[in-house]
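Final report, Chapter 2: Outcomes

The project's central promise was a pipeline that accepts a single protein chain and returns its three-dimensional structure in a standardized token representation, suitable for archiving and comparison. That pipeline is now operational. To close this chapter, we reproduce one record exactly as it appears in the project archive, with the input sequence first and the structure output second.
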Amino acid sequence: MKRRRAKAITIITLSLALLLTACSTGKEEKKADTGSSESLEGSNASSDASDKEFGTFESETLEGEAVSDDIFSKADLTMVNIWGTFCGPCIREMPDLGELSREYADKGVQVVGIVSDVGEAKNEKAEEIVSTTKADYTHIVASQDLMSGILGSVNVVPTTIFVDKEGKQVGDVYSGARDKAEWAGIIDKLLGEI
């Protein structure tokens, strides 16, 4: 009896920890997410153009400007943070991401957000979140290209993926929110690897 109770408490504790760092996108989970880093299927780095994590896409920014996968060529390293307007952990980490975007801009790093639950520019709720959190980096809306591509394999937000100038994944895929110091450590490590 005591063992069952201890096991139940452990399961509840782990579930609460995951809820505090990530939100489900409502899609059926392919595997349990522990909030740790992992690689998405088919995202091994190699010289083949098909290894571009985001593939070829066209979309719009939240402000309504046209954007494509060429956005990655603007920096040596791009931190792509996939978030949702419904996700508390996503919103809580956005002020840190805004600061990192400003602090690392002169080091060849850019931060890009993809709003997983917004399909059109000028979404008031998303714009208000970006403004309030001072997450003043580029935010891309979920176009059909992105929905049928990368967003189809994302089960939890925030999910963060780093890519190089060619759009190829660098390092792991990170599920769940992290604080500024953790992200800075990851960015510094990845800059040393590219």
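Archive annotation: The beta strands are 23-24, 37-38, 58-60, 66-68, 77-83, 109-115, 138-141, 156-157, 159-164, 169-175.
This record, like all others produced under the grant, will remain available to the consortium after the project formally closes.
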